[in-house]
């Protein structure tokens, strides 16, 4: 059986004298020029792998932006390799603090223009990823931020807590799910966490808050009780987050998830449709990441990606 080998990476980019440049690596063992990437380690998820590999191969600390798709090709072993890519903006601070040294895997890293990258890269599948990114450049939507909509992890019945719906705790599996999403969501560089004030939502984001140092803001406007009493207000929550233009995580309940995503679409002038319904179909602990233009949020949703909880 031809079992696929999964990998992840990112097309790192920055502005040099006002012009977009992307990062390529010269690999020592293969003598080729490629986009940084690497295989998924046991227990890892794709976003986690992408950030780790960028750090290991280039010395750069990055957050993931818009997904750029995937490449699929045969390895000499006959196995299929599937590589998922994201765009990743590299700040001046990341450049200053980078720790790259030539090693047995990577001989050198180099910033090149998009035009040079096309002729410089060894593999056609890498060039295809550059082409996808160049479309974003042409549309003026390279600078992005994301709003991650997270459904709370698996919760117990009300009898396991204080007897109320809002007091329902997480099950042991739910606690594991809350831990599992930390490196996945952290890969997108959250700056703000907003959560329903229900215990199951607050507990879901607690490990992420501890890992990032972000104090979650609790809100009754996106609680199950508010939804059932027809007093929920996802619009005001989303409006603030879109206006802020910073990476944010919003943790809520299944009935509120489609409302939150719909409000993102409306706030950014996007057409609502089946893609919103698909992104809202989240099991406990799953999340969808909505990518928006940082310079012109009203230009619409650039991309949505949905990630299942691995637990």
From TrEMBL:
<dbReference type="GO" id="GO:0006754">
    <property type="term" value="P:ATP biosynthetic process"/>
</dbReference>
<keyword id="KW-0378">Hydrolase</keyword>
<dbReference type="InterPro" id="IPR013078">
    <property type="entry name" value="His_Pase_superF_clade-1"/>
</dbReference>
<dbReference type="InterPro" id="IPR015797">
    <property type="entry name" value="NUDIX_hydrolase-like_dom_sf"/>
</dbReference>
<dbReference type="InterPro" id="IPR029033">
    <property type="entry name" value="His_PPase_superfam"/>
</dbReference>
<dbReference type="Pfam" id="PF00293">
    <property type="entry name" value="NUDIX"/>
</dbReference>
<dbReference type="Pfam" id="PF00300">
    <property type="entry name" value="His_Phos_1"/>
</dbReference>
<dbReference type="InterPro" id="IPR020084">
    <property type="entry name" value="NUDIX_hydrolase_CS"/>
</dbReference>
<dbReference type="GO" id="GO:0006167">
    <property type="term" value="P:AMP biosynthetic process"/>
</dbReference>
<dbReference type="GO" id="GO:0004081">
    <property type="term" value="F:bis(5'-nucleosyl)-tetraphosphatase (asymmetrical) activity"/>
</dbReference>
<feature type="domain" description="Nudix hydrolase">
    <location>
        <begin position="5"/>
        <end position="135"/>
    </location>
</feature>
<dbReference type="InterPro" id="IPR051325">
    <property type="entry name" value="Nudix_hydrolase_domain"/>
</dbReference>
<protein>
    <submittedName>
        <fullName>NUDIX hydrolase</fullName>
    </submittedName>
</protein>
<dbReference type="InterPro" id="IPR000086">
    <property type="entry name" value="NUDIX_hydrolase_dom"/>
</dbReference>
């Amino acid at each position: 059986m031809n079992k696929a080998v999964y990998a992840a990476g990112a097309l790192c980019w920055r502005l040099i004298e006002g012009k977009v440049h992307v990062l390529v690596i010269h690999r020592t063992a293969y003598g080729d020029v490629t986009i940084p990437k690497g295989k998924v380690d046991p227990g890892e998820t794709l976003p986690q792998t992408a950030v780790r590999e960028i750090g290991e191969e280039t010395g750069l600390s990055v957050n993931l932006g818009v997904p750029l798709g995937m490449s699929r090709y045969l390895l000499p072993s006959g196995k299929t390799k599937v590589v998922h890519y994201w765009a990743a903006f590299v700040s001046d601070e990341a450049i200053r603090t980078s720790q790259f040294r030539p090693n047995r895997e990577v001989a050198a890293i180099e910033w090149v223009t998009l035009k040079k990258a096309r002729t410089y890269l060894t593999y056609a599948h890498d060039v295809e990823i550059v082409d996808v990114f160049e479309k974003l450049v042409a549309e003026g939507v390279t600078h992005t931020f994301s709003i991650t909509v997270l459904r709370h992890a698996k919760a117990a019945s009300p009898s396991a807590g204080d007897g109320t719906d809002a007091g329902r705790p997480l099950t042991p599996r739910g606690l594991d799910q809350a831990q599992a999403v930390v490196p996945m969501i952290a890969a997108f560089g959250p700056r703000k966490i907003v959560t329903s004030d229900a215990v199951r939502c607050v507990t879901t984001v607690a490990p992420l808050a501890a890992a990032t140092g972000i104090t979650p803001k609790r809100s009754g406007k996106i609680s199950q009780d508010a939804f059932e009493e027809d007093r929920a207000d996802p619009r005001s929550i989303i409006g603030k987050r879109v206006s802020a233009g910073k990476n944010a995580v919003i943790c809520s309940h299944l009935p509120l998830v489609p409302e939150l995503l719909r409000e993102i679409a409306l706030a950014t002038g996007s057409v609502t449709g089946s893609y919103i319904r698909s992104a809202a179909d989240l099991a406990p602990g799953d999340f969808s990441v909505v990518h928006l233009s940082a310079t012109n949020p009203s230009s619409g949703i650039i991309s949505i990606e949905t990630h299942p909880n691995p637990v």
